[in-house]
Amino acid sequence: MSGDRERDESGQFEPEYTDEEIIQAVRLNEPAGTQEVADELGIARQSVDYRLRKLLDQGHVEKQKIGNSLVWRVSE
């Protein structure tokens, strides 16, 4: 519930899951689709997509196009 979540200094809600929890969900489902990660954590696909793209920019995960699907892997 959003009423239980903490806000950061700028007033934004703190993420429900840490980067490591997102990475672990990718690792468990590799190659992991965005929806698979969302289902693993029980959060919206859009939220997971946003977080995965941030992790991609930081070099923690890699993306790959397989057919029409985008999948994620943990960077080594």
From TrEMBL:
Domain of life: Archaea
InterPro entries: ArsR-like_HTH, WH-like_DNA-bd_sf, WH_DNA-bd_sf
One Pfam family linked to the record: HTH_24
Database matches in Gene3D superfamilies: Winged helix-like DNA-binding domain superfamily/Winged helix DNA-binding domain
Protein name per UniProt: Helix-turn-helix domain-containing protein
Species of provenance: Halorubrum ejinorense
